[in-house]
Amino acid sequence: MTEALFTVFIFALATFLGLELISKVPPTLHTPLMSGSNAISGVTIIGAVVVAGEASSPLLIGVGVAAVVLATINVVGGFLVTDRMLRMFKRRS
Questions:
Q1: What are 7-30's pLDDT values in tens digits?
Q2: Which of 10, 15, 27, 68 has a beta carbon 3.0–4.6 Å from 48's, enabling a disulfide?
Q3: What residues have CB less than 8 Å from 67, skipping those under 6 apart?
Q4: What is the pLDDT of residue 5?
Q5: Residue 16 pLDDT
Q6: Is the alpha carbon torsion for 39, 25, 72, 50 positive or negative?
Q7: In angstroms, rounded to a whole number, what is the distance separating the alpha carbons of residues 91 and 93?
Q8: Within the chain, where are the H helices?
Q9: CA 44, CA 71: separation in Å to the nearest integer?
Q10: Which residue in 55, 19, 18 sits closest to 40, CA to CA?
């Protein structure tokens, strides 16, 4: 139970830290920074898959699966925003 509690603590700490960091980024820099962080989010997916695969308790498996789902949403959203941003700079024919 101690390992599961520590894992939930790390997850909550990362969530609050992420929210705090994102709230400090000015809106004009948010989209370029988001497009540049897609590679880091890909690494997060790999780490989440490894953690979910090695989990022994149902709680840890659930947290691992949630991490995979949330990281995947982050990567897909980042690519969609990047694509939209790049379309803004294309010349109209």
A1: 999 999 999 998 888 788 787 776
A2: 68
A3: 11, 44, 48, 51, 52
A4: 92
A5: 93
A6: positive
A7: 6
A8: 2-23, 27-36, 38-54, 58-88
A9: 6
A10: 18
Region class of 90: left (phi > 0), else alpha (psi between -120 and 50), else beta: beta
pTM higher than 0.85 = no
DSSP state of 93: -
List the structure tokens of 75: 């990567």
The residue among 41, 49, 35 whose CA lies nearest residue 71 is 41
* Percentage of residues in the chain having pLDDT higher than 90: 15
d(CA 37, CA 26): 16
Residue pair 81/36 in contact by the 8 Å Cβ criterion = no
Asked if 34 and 84 touch (Cβ cutoff 8 Å), the reply is no
| Owner of token pair 């609050």 | 16
